[in-house]
Amino acid sequence: MKHFFTSRKNFTVLAITLVMVSITVSNCKKDSQFIEDEPPSWYFDLAVPVIPYNYENPGLPSFFYSRQIVFADNTPADNPTTNWGATLGRVLFYDKRLSINNTISCSSCHQQEFGFSDTARLSKGFNHGLTGRHSMGLVNAKYYSSGKFFWDERASSLEDQVLQPIQDAIEMGMTIDSVISKLQKIDYYPDLFTKAFGDNQIDSVRLSKALSQFVRSLVSYQSKFDVGRSRADSFTQQFANFTPSENRGKTIFTSKGTLTCSGCHITDVFIGDNPRNNGMNIAVDSGVGAVSNNPMDLFTFKTPSLKNIAVRPPYMHNGAFGSLEAVINHYSDSIADHAFLDPHFRTPNGQNNQFNLTAQEKTDLINFLKTLTDEKMLKDKKFNDPFL
Ligand code: HEC
Ligand code: HEC
User: Fold this and answer.
1) Same domain for 372 and 228
2) Do 231 and 182 belong to one domain?
3) C-alpha dihedral (99, 102, 103, 107), degrees to nearest 10
4) CA 267–ligand 2 middle distance (angstroms)
5) Does residue 200 sit within a domain?
6) Is the shortest distance between the CB of 310 and ligand 2 below 6 Å?
7) Phi and psi for 262 in degrees, rounded to 5?
8) Ligand 2 atom nearest to 365, measured from its CA
9) Atom of ligand 1 nearest to the CA of 305
10) Could you tell me if residue 44 is inside a domain?
């Protein structure tokens, strides 16, 4: 070194080289990490990528473009799902500050690994109070054609529904005004609202739109069922990737004598079209009837999607069944006869009808229901907790 620096020329060459190397290194860092010059404001708080995940167009298999499924989509014209809108929705969904004491987020009761439902029969709110009904799995909510939400369908749209838990006295205990002023003070929310909606205004309409976009993005299309379905011409064809038991279970699902499961859990997304009474014993909860004041709706409940059903016991609006076996025993042997029972469960001469499954048929049906588990979705980063 000593000899090297004795020449002034050598020293200049070294200095110029060092400057050039450092410029190159800093440019590379910028290019590879950040699209913009500076890291985004959420960079150290949130696992939200600079280029957003694709929520808009996840590449659904072609059978999702059937008339029935396209028709069932409840996305309103003024709130299409965008990548940044759903990204903002994801952050809000996992943010405990939406509750009054910063302890509960939407995800507390709608957990990704359990199909966005809860393992508890009733869920705990911010002050340890319990919800009146079992938490609902949110997957494929987008395809409930009437666009009504909750077990009793009391919300007329998803945009209306998502603001209710925030204000619920048991669940999150907030007012919309206080949520908005809380969000305004968190440095990255104005930026995320700008990405989603074009400017940094934070209001209840945008809050509702972003949460709804995230919920609508929860579409399951990568289960074993979906793989089989995309390779087959129809639902009823034997699926090449299914075991014989799973294929038999699929057949029972679509027909067992005059009865079907698919008559209510319809289409390839397994969701209902109407509230119904599925023969549960009538107890305290009068369901949709209490909201609509129509006696025909008494003791009926929203028919949920069965996607990811195996990972999210307990089942039904009251969490009455702890396992799929219990659900199948109900449909097979215990459908209660009462005035509110859905006509699907009656014989032409008005008797209440049961599926009357053998032990083998019960096993087959459960094996089929397990093919509806979408492991990829239950782990997908774009749906998980972004808080670092
Ligand atoms: C304390 C638990 C809890 C929290 C927190 C909570 N939910 Fe729920 N969620 C429930 C329960 C319980 C139901 C069913 C209630 C009913 O039908 O009466 C439900 C129902 C829903 C439904 C209706 C699904 C359908 O198919 O009709 C949606 C959507 C939903 N929640 C989204 C959210 C969002 C978004 C948040 C956060 C802003 C949230 N929830 C916070 C427990 C919770
Ligand atoms: C007449 C319509 C109808 C038929 C037929 C029907 N279901 Fe249901 N299913 C419902 C309704 C409505 C609910 C919600 C009821 C409640 O919560 O009280 C439900 C709930 C379920 C649940 C629990 C979902 C959850 O999120 O907790 C499972 C599992 C289920 N059904 C499977 C089946 C299977 C398997 C069959 C065929 C053996 C079947 N259903 C036939 C209407 C029906």
Assistant:
1) yes
2) no
3) 60
4) 14
5) yes
6) no
7) -70, -10
8) 35
9) 26
10) no
Residue 96: pLDDT band by 50, 70, 90 thresholds?
very high
Q: Which two tokens stand for residue 354?
A: 């049961």
Place of tokens 């075991």: 243
* Whether the predicted model's global pTM rises above the 0.85 cut: yes
Which of 199, 218, 237 marks a domain boundary?
Answer: 218
> How much distance in Å is there from the Cα of 278 to the middle of ligand 2?
6
- Look up residue 344 and give its amino acid: H
Confidence band for 33, pLDDT divided at 50, 70 and 90? low
CA 332 to chain centroid, in Å, comes to 29
* Residue 22 belongs to domain spanning: 2-33
Same domain, 158 and 279: no
The answer to whether residues 151 and 280 belong to one domain is no
Which tens digits make up the pLDDT trace of 349-386?
888 899 999 999 999 999 999 999 999 999 999 999 99
Half-sphere exposure of 232 (CA within 13 A, CB side): 17
Identify the sign of the CA torsion 248, 249, 254, 258.
positive
Q: Same domain for 155 and 106? A: yes
Tokens 């079209």 label which residue? 273
Centre of ligand 2 to C-alpha 306, Å, is: 8
Whether residues 178 and 140 share a domain: the answer is yes
* pLDDT at residue 6, rounded to an integer: 44
Residue 140 CB coordination number (10 Å): 23
Residue 6, judged by CB atoms within 10 A of its CB (0-12, 13-18, 19+), counts as exposed
Of 107, 277, 87, nearest to 188 by C-alpha is 87
Same-domain pairing of 113 and 14: no
